[in-house]
């Protein structure tokens, strides 16, 4: 009987339902077998489709409907495996097994039940949580096509510290991604650029046709690039009456139009990362590893008056609190250093947020993510961008910072030269001419 008991346990594990067909309720067994074979067949088909058309599978599993279906399927199989395992334990008839084998068989079966059913149940929980997260962060608007073969995304690192009147972006960059290869170029824009032009048709640009604040000043204290967000958001929201309904805001839209005017690019989407909420996201992921290039101070409070300690050069593992200080510290560094550190922090977190790490800590990540990210990327484009991002990770990211070392004077920038630099950086690499 002991050998029979082990066979039934193994059959229930390898092919759920087979134990019942051989030694118990055949109707239940056939149901279990059909469910098992359907799951295996579906997994094989999905795997084959993913190998051929990964975007199709990713689109399904980054949609609200797809995630709810996945959650329902996982919950169904968790319940099915639970019923089959309990029924198998009844078929085993432990009292007839060898006395020494009874606790081992029972413990092994219980452990399998907990692992298999628990994994499926947790998967269902993650799927429903992911569905809620995606619905709260990503909009349902129309998809935009690539322009000149590229997707251009405005990336804003927003800082709403206690010393500020609302949120103001300190890190402003445009990420330009080749729509076919995934090759990415990051164009970093200094927050203190002056006389900023706007793209054609800009609402705020109509008020400043010669550049932001270049003639009669502006409606905020400093007429710089990151002040455009504040002016549109707090002083002139009526210039962008539809922004909120479209999943954006007046400040974001005005900044996007300014970034288009600076770079000469058409920007399809934006992503706003709130640096305050960034701290929670880093903690949820278990910290972030940063290669510190120069000594950076951590202050005792938001006044930046007294240095508590210094981050020394080298690899440092930071929690959310210290990562935020690393990104925001002003003492002894320039705006360009601060801009570079914030970009470095964003890139490091994205690189280290592996799928396994996100899944095991999903509840905290999702809760923090809704406070960190605002974007108008439509949910229907997520599968495409996730697939494109997998290509991007395999290629080096080209960095193009608009800083004095690259010939950009923030007080008197030559925007024609900046646009020429951008065009040159994004130009396709010349193909080799075959030797005759």
UniProtKB/TrEMBL annotation:
What name is this protein filed under?
A: LytR family transcriptional regulator
Pfam families with a match to the protein in the record: LytR_cpsA_psr (PF03816)
Q: Keyword set for this entry?
A: Membrane, Transmembrane, Transmembrane helix
Q: Which residues cross the membrane?
A: 6-23, 35-53, 65-92, 104-125
Lineage, please?
A: Bacteria, Bacillati, Actinomycetota, Actinomycetes, Micrococcales
Residue ranges annotated for the Cell envelope-related transcriptional attenuator domain, each copy included: 168-353
Which Gene3D superfamilies does this entry report, sorted A to Z?
LCP protein (3.40.630.190)
Q: InterPro entries under this entry?
A: LytR/CpsA/Psr_CW_biosynth, LytR_CpsA_psr
Q: Give the similarity note.
A: Belongs to the LytR/CpsA/Psr (LCP) family.
The question of whether Transmembrane helix is a record keyword is answered with yes
């Amino acid at each position: 009987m002991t050998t029979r008991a082990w066979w039934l346990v193994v059959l229930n594990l390898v092919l759920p339902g087979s134990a019942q067909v051989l030694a118990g309720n055949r109707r239940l067994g056939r149901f279990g077998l059909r469910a098992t074979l359907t799951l295996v067949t579906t997994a094989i088909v999905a795997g084959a489709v993913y190998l051929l058309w990964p975007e199709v599978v990713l689109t399904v599993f980054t949609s609200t409907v797809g995630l709810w279906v996945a959650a329902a399927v996982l919950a169904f199989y968790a319940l099915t495996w639970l019923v089959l395992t309990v029924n198998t334990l009844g078929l085993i008839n432990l009292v007839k097994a060898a006395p020494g084998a009874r606790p081992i068989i029972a413990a092994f079966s219980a452990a399998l039940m907990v692992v298999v059913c628990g994994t499926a149940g947790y998967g269902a929980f993650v799927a429903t949580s992911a569905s809620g997260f995606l619905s709260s962060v990503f909009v349902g608007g129309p998809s935009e096509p690539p322009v000149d073969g590229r997707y251009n995304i405005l990336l804003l690192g927003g800082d709403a510290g206690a010393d500020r009147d609302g949120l103001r972006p300190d890190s402003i960059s445009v990420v330009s991604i080749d729509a076919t290869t995934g090759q990415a170029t990051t164009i970093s824009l200094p927050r203190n650029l002056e006389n900023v032009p706007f793209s054609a048709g800009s609402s705020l640009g109509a008020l400043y046709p010669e550049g932001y604040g270049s003639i009669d000043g502006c409606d905020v204290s400093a007429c710089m690039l990151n002040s455009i967000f504040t002016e549109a958001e707090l002083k002139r929201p009526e210039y962008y009456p539809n922004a909120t309904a479209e999943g954006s805001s007046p400040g974001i839209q005005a900044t996007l139009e300014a970034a288009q005017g600076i770079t000469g690019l058409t920007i399809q989407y934006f992503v706003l990362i709130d640096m305050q909420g960034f701290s929670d996201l880093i903690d949820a992921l278990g910290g972030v590893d940063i290669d510190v290039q120069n000594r950076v101070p951590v202050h005792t409070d938001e006044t930046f008056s007294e240095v508590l300690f210094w981050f020394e050069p080298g690899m440092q593992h930071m929690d959310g609190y210290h990562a935020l200080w690393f990104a925001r510290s002003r003492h002894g560094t320039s705006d360009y250093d601060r801009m570079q550190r914030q970009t470095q922090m964003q890139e490091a977190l994205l690189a280290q947020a592996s799928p396994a790490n996100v899944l095991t800590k999903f509840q905290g990540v999702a809760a923090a993510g809704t406070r960190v990210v605002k974007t108008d990327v439509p949910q229907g484009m997520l599968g495409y961008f996730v697939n494109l991002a997998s290509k991007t990770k395999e290629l080096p990211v080209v960095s193009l910072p608009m800083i004095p070392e690259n010939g950009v004077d923030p007080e008197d920038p030559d925007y024609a030269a900046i646009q020429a630099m951008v065009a040159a950086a994004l130009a396709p690499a010349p193909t080799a001419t075959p030797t005759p």
